[in-house]
Amino acid sequence: MDPRLYRYAKSGDICFLKQLLNDNPSLLYQLTPRKNTALHIAVEFGDSNVVAEIYSRCRSLLTQQNLAGDTPLHVAARVGCFSIFNDLVREILSMSQEDFRNEKDGMFETLRMGNRGKNTVLHEAVRNGHIKLVQFLLTMDPKLASIENDAGESPLYLAARGGMFEILNQILKSTASSAHGGSDGRTALHAAVVEKHFDIVEGLLRFKQQLIKETDHQGRTPLFYAASLGQHRTVKRLLELDTSIAYVLDKEGRSPIHVAASKGHTSVIREIIRHCPDSGEICDLYGQNALHMAIIGGRAHVVRYILETPELECLINQPDVIGNTPLHLATIERKTWIMYYLMWDGRVHQSSMYKCGQAAFDIDRSIKESSFASPRKLQNIIPDIWGHLGTRDSYLDIKISPRAEQEEANAVQTYMQMGQTLLMVTTLITTVTFAAAFTMPGGITMM
C-alpha cells in the first residue's frame, strides 16, 4: 500500500487524503501485507470522515475481507465505534440493485458473514463487550444469536464466559432460539460455572433451565464443575432444580461427589448428600467411592467427615475392583494419618483382604503394632512402616499437596495432645487407686 494512503487513512487527514485520491483513484485498491484495505485501516483508527470518504469512492470495499477474513464491519464491531458501524450498515442497506438482488437479503448476508474463525460481527461485539452494538445487531437480525463459530462458540457462550450479564440478558430476551454452545462441547452454563459468575448462572437458569443436564465432551455437567471448584452456592442452586444430575457420571465414571471428595470440598459433599442421600454409593470405573477419592487426594478432613456421616457409613469397608478397601488404599498410598483415622474407627475391618490375599497388616507387620500404640510412640513407628514399604512411586504416582501435608501435621499435633491428656488422666487414676489401697478404713485421727 502506498505509504501516503496508509498514513492519511490512519491519521484522519481528510484534506490530504482527498487530494491523493483525486490524483490517483486507483490507490484505493492497494492492500497491506495482511490484505487490509484503506477502509479497514480508517475504521480501525476511528475517523468517521475518512471512513465516509473512502467508501463513497469505492463501495465494494464495504464487504471486502482481509487475510483474517474480517470485513470492515468486523473491525468496527471489534473497535466498538457505534457511529462508524451504523454508517457502514446504512451504506450497505442503500446499495443499489446491481450490488445485491435483494437489499434485505444482502444486508443479512453481510452481517452473518464469518471471518476465518467463522466469527460474525455479533461475536466480535460480544467478545469486546460493546452492548450498544449488540442491541443494534440483535434488532437488525436476531438470527445472529444462533450462529456458532469454528470453535463451537455462540455469542451467548462468550457473554457467559466473560461475565457480561447485560449482554447475556439482551441475547436471551431477543430470541428464544439463541445458540448456547461453546468450545469442547461446553454450554454457556458450563462457562458461567467455571468462571464463577453466579449472576450469569441465575440468568441462564431463568431462560434455559434445560442446560443443567447438558454434558461436555468429557461427559461433565455444570454440577460436576461446580463440585470440583467448591462452589457450594451453585451446587445448592442446581440441585434445587434437578437432583438427577448428581448421578451423572463423566467418561471416567466419576460423579460430582467423587470430584468434590478428591478436591477436599466438604461443604459440597454435605450439600449433595442432603439432596441425594444415596449418591454416596456411586462408584467410578475402578469401583472406587468418594472415600477412596478422598484418600487418594490426601483429604484428611473429608475422611473425617465421611466417618462421621451416617449416610456414608457404607463406604468405610467397601473394596474397589481389585479389592482395596479404604484402609488398604490409605496404607498403599502412604496417607499416614488417614490410615490411623481408619484404624482407630471400630467399624473398619482391619483384617479385610484384597485380591492378592493380603490384609492391610500384611502390607507391613509394623502397622499392626501401630494400631495399638499410643500417640506418643507414633513418631517412632511411622518411619519404620514407610521404610519397609519403599518409595511411594512404586505404587501410584500420586503427589501429596502441601495442604494435605499440613493437615497431617495438624492431625499429629492433635493426637499427641490427646495422648498427653490421656496419660495424665491415667496417672491420676493410678495415684488415687494406690492411695486408696494403703489408706486404713475409717482413717486415722491425729491427737
From TrEMBL:
Membrane topology is: Multi-pass membrane protein
Q: Which InterPro entries match?
A: Ankyrin_rpt, Ankyrin_rpt-contain_sf, PGG_dom
Q: Which residues form the signal peptide?
A: none
User: Which of UniProt's keywords are assigned here?
Assistant: ANK repeat, Membrane, Repeat, Transmembrane, Transmembrane helix
Domain named PGG: residues? 415-444
What is the protein named? Answer: PGG domain-containing protein
Q: Where are the transmembrane segments?
A: 422-444
Tell me any Pfam family this protein matches: Ank_2
Q: Which organism is it from?
A: Prunus dulcis
Family matches, as SUPFAM superfamilies: Ankyrin repeat
Q: What cellular component GO annotations does this protein have?
A: plasma membrane
According to its UniProt record, where is this protein mainly located? membrane
Give start and end residues of every ANK repeat.
117-149, 184-206, 218-250, 252-275
Q: According to its UniProt record, where is this protein located?
A: Membrane
